[in-house]
Amino acid sequence: MRLVKKYRRTTLITVGCLSVLLGLGLSRKVNIQPAIWWLVFAPLLAILRTKNLASLLLVIVLGLGVGLWRGSGFMQKANDLKALSGYKVTIQATATTDSIYGNKAQIEFTANRVQLLQGGSFQNYNKPLAGNFKISGFGEKMVYRGDIVQVSGKLYPMRGSNQARIAYAQLQKVGVSTNWINKLTRNFNAGMQNALPEPLASFGLGLLIGQRSTLPTDILTALTTVGLVHIVAVSGYNLTILVRATQRVKLRSKYQRLVISLVLIGLFVLITGFSASIVRAAFVSILSLWAWFYGRHIKPILLILFAAAVTGLVNPFYVWGDLGWYLSFLAFFGVLVIAPLIAARLFKGRPKMLTMVLIETLSAEIMTLPLIMMTFGKLSLVALLANVIVVPMVPFAMLLGAIAAAAGTWLTPLAGWFAWPAKILLTYMLDIVRLLSQLPHAAINGSISVVQMLILYALVLFLVLVVSIHIRRKNHKLPAVSILGISK
Q1: What's the pTM?
Q2: CA of 188: how far to CAs of 367, 404, 408, in Å?
């Protein structure tokens, strides 16, 4: 008698997440609306308990349906923005970043929670508009995160992390933020400026909270040239450092370490302002903490796909064109999947910390390089060397920078004494960046097409599969690599 093949629960969840992402992608071309016939699938959910081929097919259909339904709803919101393209509009929005001075003395900031007050061909105003807006204009000297601003100007849709832009706008604050977190962040920034000279203060803020809007253009260019711009972009690495530091503190129980880690993650997300990249990193970090606390092992592929599906459902704009969303999950794949394979292939036991940092950096570079080359047409030849030299110093720079900022905030007369270690280390790091960026052919043009990019990723996945099968046949144990670096 032939036995019916059963699938593991993790396999069904993995396939379901892939189906959701595929549905979100297809929703750009296929539009479906929720209808009563979807209730037909409700009794079929009982099939999932059998975990057979019928369950697998049901998971695929449901995943595609959920992705198409959610994406279709957001496509309507995207069409609203297209309908307003080129029109002069008046909107009310909440600033998500502190403003900076940009071109032609305009102040620039990003905003969300947008309400259309006037403009376009819509009959009913006070209509909510989806997505993040990039705003620049005149009329206010400064706009802080959390302020409510009325903006009048021509609207144009964008692609990427911001869905629309209004430039040369007339700005008027109609509400001022009283949030204590926003005040704390501004005081912290001022403290860093009091304690350290420029550009060290801006570099320190970039390392700590991902604020790179105040970084001089030449330094930002140098960081990009040597492949280190990620250290001044708030990401999972910042959370990794915080949680690893918590794990090194001697506490009585795992529960205490869990609580402190969660509090640090929550505070960090609040201070950095719920940017898309840090929310993704926080979600993955919390899942990893949950698995560690309960002694569970989450397969890296499942962790990555689950986080991608959830964040994609929350905001389908990520799937439709947010480069940062793709780069973050490609880097996760490199660190969580490729790095353990390389370590297991080259070493018998777990490599030393510096060696593992090198392997993880190389793995992340492998996964992000094709997309970067296709998008920017640049290839950094010194990126690996720069990451190996500079990245291990980032945790110490963050600690010393935080001390300097705290002294600049609460001990202003003594700030210089507390800040000199941070000044020495940050100067050393910037000198290395400048030196490497000035090397001949530090970065070369290396543009590739979309087809070539897909071929490269297919080749990488094929090699991953081959090496994985070889390691399993040799009964080699993969070293446990956690994005948080927590011991099991």
Answers
A1: 0.80
A2: 35, 10, 8
Q: SS3 sequence, 389-430?
A: HHHHHHHHHHHHHHHHHHHHHHCHHHHHHHHHHHHHHHHHHH
From first CA to last CA, the distance across the chain in angstroms is: 42
| 264 vs 274: CA distance, rounded Å | 14
β-partners of residue 169 are 137
Other beta carbons within 10 Å of 246: 21
Measured CA to CA, the distance from residue 332 to residue 484 in angstroms comes to: 12
- The matching CATH number, chosen from 2.40.50, 2.30.30, 1.10.3470, 3.30.420, for 84-177 is 2.40.50
Cis peptide preceding 199, ω within 30 of 0: yes
User: H or E segment at 303?
Assistant: helix 300-314
Angle at alpha carbon of residue 77, lines to 155 and 182, rounded to 5° = 70
DSSP bridge partners of 109:
135
Q: Return residue ranges of the chain for CATH 2.40.50.
A: 84-177
pLDDT in tens, 171-196: 999 998 887 777 777 888 889 989 99
d(CA 293, CA 284): 14
Residue 421 has pLDDT above 70, yes or no: yes
Burial class, 413, CB count within 10 angstroms (exposed 0-12 / middle 13-18 / buried 19+)? exposed
Q: Which residue has the tokens 């959370």?
A: 239
The 10s digit of each residue's pLDDT in 114-133 is 999 988 776 667 788 988 89
What's the CA angle centered on 267, arms 262 and 270, to 5 degrees? 125
Q: What is the mean pLDDT of the chain?
A: 82
Q: Which two tokens stand for residue 327?
A: 């780069």
- In the chain, the amino acid numbered 292 is W
Q: Give the CA distances from residue 101 to residues 109, 213, 382, 396, in Å, rounded to whole numbers and listed in that order.
A: 9, 10, 32, 31
SS3 for 471?
helix
Work out the number of other CB atoms within 10 angstroms of the CB of residue 252. 7
Q: How many whole angstroms separate alpha carbon 44 and alpha carbon 40?
A: 8
Handedness of CA 335, 336, 339, 343 (dihedral sign): positive
Phi, psi of 161 (to 5 degrees): -70, -20
